[in-house]
Fold Ubiquitin carboxyl-terminal hydrolase.
Amino acid sequence: MQMREHCSARSRNGKMAADLGELLVPYMPTIRVPRTGDRVFKSECAFSYDSPESEGGLYVCMNTFLGFGREHVERHYRKTGQSVYMHLKRHVKEVRGAAGGAIPRRRNGKVFLDLELNRDFNGDEYECEDEAKLVIFPDHFEIPLPNIEELPALVTIACDAVLNAASAYKKQEPDSWDEEIQVSKHARSLRQQDNGVRIPPSGWKCQKCEMRENLWLNLSDGAVLCGKWFFDGAGGNGHALDHFKDTNFPLAVKLDNITPDIADIYSFDEEEAVLDPQIAEHLQHFGIDIIQIQLNGTDNGHHDTDNTNNVRPRVSEWEVIQESGMKLKAVYGSGFTGIKNLGNSCYLGTIMQVLFSIPEFQRAYVGNLQRIYDYSPLDPSTDFSTQMAKLGHGLLSGLYSKPPMKSELIEQVMKEEYKPKGISLKMFKALVSNGHPEFSSNRQQDAQKFFLHLINLVERNSVGSENPNDAFRYLVEERVQCCQTQKVRYTQKVDYLMQLPAPIEAASNREELIAYEAKRNEAEENMRAPPEPVRARIPFTACLQAFTEPENVPDFWSSELQAKSAGVKTSRFASFPEYLVVQVKKFTFGVDWVPKKVDLSIDIPDFLDLSRLRGTGLQAGEQELPDLTPPIVLPEDTRGKKGSPEIDESAAMQLAEMGFPLEACRKAIYYTGNMGPEMALNWIIAHMEEPDFAEPLALPTFMEPGPSVASSGLAATPLDSHPPEESIAILTSMGFPRRHTVQALKATNNNLERALEWIFTHTEREEEETSDALSDMADTTEPNDNDASGPRIKDGPGRYELFAFISHIGASTMSGHYVCHIKKEGRWVIFNDHKVCLSERPPKDLGYIYFYRRLSSS
């Protein structure tokens, strides 16, 4: 009987295998095995933020390896005809915490997906189990996996390769994703003993020997012990490692290397350096505030602790900006979705939160969501409009910002322990940072530079469609005066951001600052602890006054004198934008070439009237400078002969070592007349967002006069500038229509080589259509808009109301943390990565970038 049943089972299995083989035969040509270089998206949908943890799971196309949520897989099937998908689903179950005070541990069930867990249960036990199956469309026929015996060999190999593929982002960005230090698996579930241990700011020694170097603080019980050969090679007796073997307390931080921006953390269990996203909280448990207490003294960390106990530290920038210590009420729903920090990605998250609080961006991307999705390319992960629409929908739909429903989670919310997930912008970051040396890294970046970078991407991807940049774009009137002849030149340039000076000399507490500097210098000379820092308080009116003051024009060439002369420049608004972005110039470069932040506060007004800063143009009695371009000045030994211009290569290499492209550094040195790296660095900062920033230096050889000051980057290019006739003649002699060549030269800043490439990539018919589209757009603008060939400007009154600001915490743009506050429905809301709460005390005086909206005329 048993033999008969066994034979019957084998017969059924053989029949099932044959049936599956026959079922898959028509689709075999479309099933691929991932090759080297293929990116497998098995953790995020290309059109939404659905993942295997979402209710509907994730469908991975077995041909393109793109991932799709349940609502979007049908679109991909209809567009491509691809029928076979792998459905991935991760089931996460909560389990009650361990009894008896034992440290709860994660219990994995059947887990075989290379996925990061997208949720945090704050140390409670949980189980996760992964499920995979093949799904054949349109009938949704399902084949559970693994099913090795019943599937054709090719299908089995392809399924195994997809399940074991590394992260799509690691494959795309090996330099910035593969090599980075990873977050410790113990970081979020670390239990710290409530034993009353408090670590003093100095004077440490190992608890088991007299070592005062290479000391490590165990983050579980506060034990201070010496290291050994591991991690940094420093000497010691290995007591920190012995302590781990005795207690299983896994994480330790090196004491003499803790700053507000960095901490060396080692995991004994994982046997490697790790990251701890909660390091500030873990250190605070032992009385260490990484902002207020500087653990970096001299004499191996020895200070006079009698003095430190008498110092009353001020409330730190870290606490004020994040509103620490206050019971902030979490908010959920549409417009209140947080963004997960990928590791120094808060500069990106804060900018995107503010942009998608602006109606123009909401309409352009979320309002056109279906059209954008329907016309997206076969690989939507590489399409800017698709990813912007996806991000906007993720932030505004409320699908990823739902309040906790279970009683235990509601209890955690009341205890301020619940941490909402937020959405992860890995796909978006990979796209917008692709090819950019700074933003593609995993280092902290300047939010202002990223804002301009994104504006540039929006500009390039909005030709012929609604351009939300119209809300920010305005014209600047620049008045340059030759000090010797008193003649002037008025030019206009497009801008998107107002840079507001912060004159320290105008601080209202100037005497206090002078006294602090004297005490600080005295402390340095006597090797004592520095005094409590003093923050400069600068009136906003002083900042506006500094903005209006004339500034010297370096290397000014007077067209009246036909020679270099002294010149001054003043800037005014030729138009006022719908939304005004104001950056406070808080950062300066130190002697080590690292941007450092000046500690200051400004009484930023809620309402702003800039009407008096509107430009007036050429005034009665003013005489204009002749419209002549300066000649190219070449070194004597290169005049009249071909070859590269003389460039101080050592200065260029010095700039390149700071991370800038070498060719950009060479151009900066050339255009600033070999006047040194400091002058060249200013040129680099002013031209980083230009499309040809990193292209090699190309000097014109087709005419005797050189490029104008504007085209060389020393001033703005006039909006009404006409391409040189010599350049037009060269291109028209090749058979191209004059109108087309003029458009090409204007689009490429009169660069012949790039203009020729532009002509071949833009047919005349396409340009006519674009011009017609621009003309139609121009018809809907304000009366003060430029003509269709110029930039679209929405001019209006210069009266504004503050609605958002971004704050930076830390000493440099290259480190620290960003937080943004946005006014919604009359209440200020704080967006701190994935946490979104009602703000109690918005720190408007400590902001870095401010966003104002125009007040209605009524």
Remarks:
- Residues 329-471+835-845 form a domain with the Cathepsin B; Chain A fold (CATH 3.90.70.10).
- The first helix runs from residue 2 to 24.
- The mean pLDDT is 79.
